[in-house]
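Input/output pair, single chain:
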Amino acid sequence: MTRVLHLSDLHFGRSRPELETPLLAQIRSLSPDLVVISGDFTQRARESQFARARDFLARIGVPVLSVPGNHDTPLDNLFVRFLAPFRRYRRHVCAETEPFFTDGAMSVVGVNTVNPFSWQTGRFRRSARSRVCWLFEQHPAPLRLVALHHPLEHGPDTDKKPMRGARAALKELADCGAQVVLSGHLHRAASGPVRAAPGLLLVEAGTGLSTRQRGEENTFNLLDWEPGGALRVTTWSAQSRAGRQVFAPSRTALFRREEGAWLRVGPAPEAQVYQQLRAV
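Output:
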């Protein structure tokens, strides 16, 4: 079994410090093969916030692949934002904004979808699409994932603008063998296949630590992949038990890959899923 823990939107600078130790303890207890963090480590990309993110990463204790989010470029320093938007991220989090990981069982490609010239709306560049496909061709692992901050599709209840290049990315990623796309940004946990590209499964993580919960608890996702093609996505939520904070499983969806397409075969009734995805 291959296990990936998907965490997003930590937002140090507007986070819940009381959740850090329970979250780290749960990560270590679950022993994932890889932790993927899909952006927004900070609230305002300040040095002190990145320092807190760096300290948190140092305590995880397992391999981490991360990509930046739109909050990881300075909003209040236009000089840095336009001339060196990822300098602080590279210094404190990761030197690469588009990292790659493979261990034979899975290949994971990070894509930087942040557009420094637009605060909210991301972009999926043509060169990034080509790079993802090339890496999967060179490293054709049984499980192939793409990690990015901005979702490739938005549900009808989302008022954010879709990402530039998302439509082309959906087609090209499906054509070149990508299977799962991990993202964040919307602070909600959701998962489901794409109608127009059923070979792609979109998995969104909620916010791991932020106070900006948008009607949900703080969450992360756990993906368990069986070599036969089954993928279980379990959302773990922050809960108060006996006066202390813990993370516990709250909902699960089970998917199976058959003839190149994802099928939902066992969702929990309360699972949040993509029901009426709009084309981007």
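The longest strand covers residues 244-258. Helices lie at 20-30, 47-58, 78-83, 87-92, 126-138, 166-175.
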